[in-house]
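[Solved] Which block belongs to which protein?

Original post:
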Amino acid sequence: MKINGIIVKGIGGFYYVKTEDKNIYECKARGIFRKDNIVPAVGDRVLIDAKENGTGVVDSIFERKNYLIRPPVANIDLAVIVFSFTKPEPNLQLLDRFLVTVEKNEIQACVCINKLDLITDSEKKDELFATYRNAGYDIIFTSTKTKEGISELKKLLMNRISIFAGPSGVGKSSLLNEVQHGFQLRTGDISEKVERGKHTTRHVELLDLDFGGSVLDTPGFTSLEISDIEEEEIAYYFPEFVPHIEKCRFKGCRHLHEPQCEIKNKVALNEIAASRYESYVAMLKEIEEQRRHKYD
C-alpha cells in the first residue's frame, strides 16, 4: 500500500514515518538513495510502501524546501535559536553562526534568550540583544522558572514545523517540556567547573504539539560548519548588511580593506553593530582558509 507521510525520527538506518492517519511505520530506505547519495532526513515528506505489520519502505522523497546538514533536518518553517543569559554565558559569535546557517537556508529565525530569571538588570537584557532586534530578528525572553515568555513562544510555534537549536546547557529541552508538558524530555545539568551543558538529546525527533504544529528537538552542539558558503555570498546572510552592499564603491567589495566601503562606514557610524561585523570578518577568513587548504 502506497501512502504519504513524514519522517519523524531516524535511528540506526530505520526511519519512522507518520502517515496522515497518524500511524507510524518503521521503514528502511531503498538502495537507490545511497546510489544517488541522498540520505533521508527527519522532516522529509515521503511516499512509503507500507505493510500490514507496521513496517515499510521509503520509496521516494518529495522536494525539500530547505535542508540543514548538521543536524540533518528538512522542511523547516521556523528556527528557534536558544541561548541563555548566563550559565553558560552567551557566545554571540556562535549565535551569529547559527543565524548565518538559517539565513542561507531561507528559514525564518527567532532568537530565544532563556533563563530570564537569572538576570536582575532589565536594561542589560535589552541592551545585550538590541543588536539582533535591530537586524530584524524576533527576540523572545523566556524563563521556565517564572514562565515568562512561554505563551509568546507557543504562539510563534503554532501550526509550523520548528527547530529548536543552540548550544548545550541553555535549556532547550526544559523549554520544550514547558511548551508541551507531555514531552517529558530529559534535561541535563550544567558542569559548575566549565559551565558547559552535558549533551542530553541523542537523536533528532519531530514532536507534535497539541495546539498545532511540531518541533524538532536536536542534539546539542557547539559549532557549525560554514564550508558550503561562498566568500562572495556570506555578507548577504547578515540582513542589516543587505541594504548597503550595492552602495560600496567597488563591485564585489569584501568589506575588509577596500576604500569607500559602505558596510565599514555604517559600522563606524554605529548603524551596524561592531560585534556583527567582527563575526562577519571571522567567518569570511575561515572560509578563505578552508578554500586555501582545499587547493593545497
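(Second protein starts here: sequence line, then its C-alpha cells.)
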Amino acid sequence: MNTLVGTGVALVTPFNNELNVDHDALSNIVKFNIDNGTNYLVISGTTGESGTITRQEKLNIIATVKKANAGKLPLVLGIGGNNTAAVIEEIKSTDLSDFAAILSVAPYYSKPTEEGFYQHFKAISLACPIPIILYNVPGRTAKNMLPETTLRLARDFENIVAVKEAGNNQQQYLELLKDKPEDFLIISGDDDLALGVALAGGSGVISVLGQAFPKDFSKMIQLGLEGKADEAYQLHKKFMEITNLIFEENNPAGIKAVFEALGLCQDTVRLPLVPATKDLKRRISNYVKQY
C-alpha cells in the first residue's frame, strides 16, 4: 500500500457562523494540501468532527473533497464506531470505489476485551471491499488495543493493511514495528512522535498539524522515511511549539485557530466543542506570523 506511505492529513470540517459546512473553505484546504506535498487525504476522522456530522453532511463533504481533489491524491474515509452492525451497514451502503482505504476507529465507550476488538474488526474485514486502516486512539476510546491484537488482525485478514497508532506510547510503536508482517504499515497518529516513528521504520503519519503546514511537515516525514535524521529534526524543532499549542485545549479547535490565522477557514466548531480561548488564539496567531 505505497499510496498510504508518507504524510496523510486528517481534514478538518470548516463551518460558517451558522454552523453549516463551509464547502468553499473545505475545497481551498484540499487544494492547499495538494499543492504543497501532502501524500493522501483522510475524510471524516476525529479532526473532521465526525461525531457531530450527519450522514447527509458526510456524503456532501465526500462529494466536495472528491471534486476539489480531482483524482490527484489517494482518499481515505473514516467509517468506524462502537456499534459493529452499524459500521458494517455504513460500509455496505457507501460507494467506496474512489477510496484507497477506510480508517476504522477502535470501539469507544464500550471498552471491549482484546477478543472483542478482534471480533469487531474481523466482522468489518469480512464486510469491507477495500483495505482497512485500524485506528487505535485510547485517549479517546478509553481502552488501548494491544499490539498483539493489532498484529493478530494484520496476520489473519489480508485487507487489514495498516494501523494508525495514536496512543502516544513510544514503546507500543516499537513493539508493533518489531513484530509486524513485512507489508503491514505502522502509521503514526501522534504529530509529536511521527518523525521518530518514521525513523524507526514506520510508514509515516496521519497528521492534524500537517494540513496547515503541508510543505515543511511532509518534507520532514519524507526525510524521516529516508533516514535523514539531522535534516528532519531541524524541521521537527520548528513544529514543537505549535504542536503543543494545537492540542492544548481540544482538537480540532486548535488547528482551526491555525487555519483562521492563515485565512483558510473560520475557527467555528460544533458543541460540545468550543473554539480556542482568546489567549490560545493569540499565541497561535503569533506563531503563524513568525512562521
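Accepted answer:
You had them paired correctly. Confirming on the second one: The mean pLDDT is 98.
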